[in-house]
Amino acid sequence: MSGVNIQQLSIRFGSNEVIKGLDLQVHEGEFLVLLGPSGCGKSTLLHAIAGLIDVSGGRIEIGGQDMTEAEPSARGIGMVFQSYALYPTMSVERNLSFGPRVSGVPKDEIARRVQRAAQMLHLEPLLDRKPAQLSGGQRQRVAIGRAIVREAGVFLFDEPLSNLDAKLRAELRRELKLLHRQLGNTMIYVTHDQVEAMTLASRIVVMKAGVIQQIGTPTEVYERPANLFVAGFLGAPSINLVPAKVTLAGGTAQLDGALPVQLPAAGLSDGQSVVLGIRPEHVNLLDDGAYSGVVELVEPMGNHQVVWLQCGGQTLAVLVHDGRHVAAGATLRFGVQVGQLSVFDQASEQRIDLA
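-> structure tokens emitted (355 positions)
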């Protein structure tokens, strides 16, 4: 088991700087997820840790050793790709054992490792099959098993579930989380899927344009987003963002806009333009609610509904769990859980911490 320490990492492709002076400490044994939209640099960062691309500056330490210029084979990592990358002419057993065989590991030790990985990943009945005889989920299990058999200190996952259907993704998410609990190895996982990030991670690193926007537990980045980008990227439906103007009066601040609210004045300035962030689950339909809106759309989701309201020129998403019938065009009253609001400065887009 090894930690990873990245200091002032920079990566350029020609004149394009993809990673910009990035610092990141990955603790031993944690499941760290790199989350962000396509093109934000998360896969580039993972490939730099693996040694698959050259860095322009900075330092990468794995297990306390400087691995910035080391060959991938010397880094003590196991990599799992999106595309499985299995040898098509080899059986599952031969695919699993390929790395240790090339490294000269004794046969009995290879057999022990393969048996252990096969048991963990439910591959025992498939050891004699070729990749073409496997489903997508089974192939990805073999790819994961190959990393386990290497007994790497750090596992790197590059969007390994993105080629699978929704049901298989959910199944393999559970298996990966259980696998991490069993092995205890350091795992770094790249995804643009917030559900994967929230369910798998001990900590999430949210990235945008090669820069880390926030690092925290899933609860921290969801409930206390550091800026408007993080707030909008996590959550389905997305967070409601409502512009407002601050008027100070004594120790309170009146925020006037589509959803007028009163908040503590600390951290706010008179006349300041802000944005209120309200998660859909913190908007409640109430007969005596302080606000009213017209139903624009209702999306049935099985155990709940997403109700879209028009209020003061703003479209708001509301999660409704009580099974009530809601019709498009109806006028509904609602309230918001003021204690759950996030407030962002409109100019800087950064979170404002209210006392």
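The chain has a mean pLDDT of 93.
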